[in-house]
Amino acid sequence: MTDPIIQLKNVHKTFQIANQQVHALRGVDLSLKRGQLVGVTGRSGSGKSTLLHVIGTLDTPSSGIVYLNGRDVSNLTDKDASTFRNRTVGFVFQMNNLLPEFSALENVIMPGLIAGLGRDALHKRAEALLNAVDLGHRLEHRPAELSGGEQQRVAIARALLMEPPILLCDEPTGNLDKKNGERVEEILVELSRRTQVTMLLVTHDIELAKRLPYQVVMEDGNIVDYGGSW
């Protein structure tokens, strides 16, 4: 049996806001194998983004255990978490967070430069990814010269540069019109399947989530329903 690449055991996350405790996650259990593509839905405040942040080591759980790729990442130091993320997790957010002064190609290679990899190999890999997202003709264009959909495709290429086994997407089509949103969705699914990455995609678009092979529904900080071929 294949070991899970993502495993959460009784994960809680509590935030202190003023004098109030907010229970964002309430004992979440989740186990995903390599290559699973999962849509995560639920109302605002249900814990979807917190779930991604905890899985992506952007935040630590208040209690419980998070295993990624066989490693307990529940209590990594900031430095160790940053190093681990760089090699293991790709992110695509609603805001693409591209650096405006750099070209599409330069934005894509940034995670590799942070990891200390050679520029020549990074340029080849980045160019291949930009070709894969239909932006081979836009390598030298800066974000301001690209449409919203094109910018988000650059962000997808950047997220996949380090060949991470895990891809986390938080409302990646939320700022796009229907046509561009559908194209970004198609590219995410196509590249995830091609690379056998495990993808969690948070979305308010129920129909988008249902087009993925697996779905989970969150409510009040926990997973309350599953859809697809579990």
Q: What layout of secondary structure does this protein have?
A:
Blueprint: E1 6-17, E2 20-32, E3 37-41, H1 48-55, E4 63-68, E5 71-72, H2 78-88, E6 89-93, H3 104-114, H4 119-132, H5 148-160, E7 166-170, H6 178-195, E8 198-202, H7 206-210, E9 214-219, E10 222-228
Parallel strand pairs: 3-8, 3-9, 6-7, 7-8
Antiparallel strand pairs: 1-2, 1-4, 4-5, 9-10
Helix pairs in contact: 3-4, 3-5, 4-5, 5-6
Report what the structure shows.
There is one protein chain. With 230 residues, the chain is an alpha/beta fold. It has helices at 48-55, 78-88, 104-114, 119-132, 148-160, 178-195, 206-210, and strands at residues 6-17, 20-32, 37-41, 63-68, 71-72, 89-93, 166-170, 198-202, 214-219, 222-228. The chain is built from 7 helices and 10 strands. The chain is 35% helix and 29% strand. The chain has one domain (6-228): Rossmann fold. α3 (104-114) packs across α4, α4 crosses α5 (148-160) and α5 (148-160) packs parallel to α6.
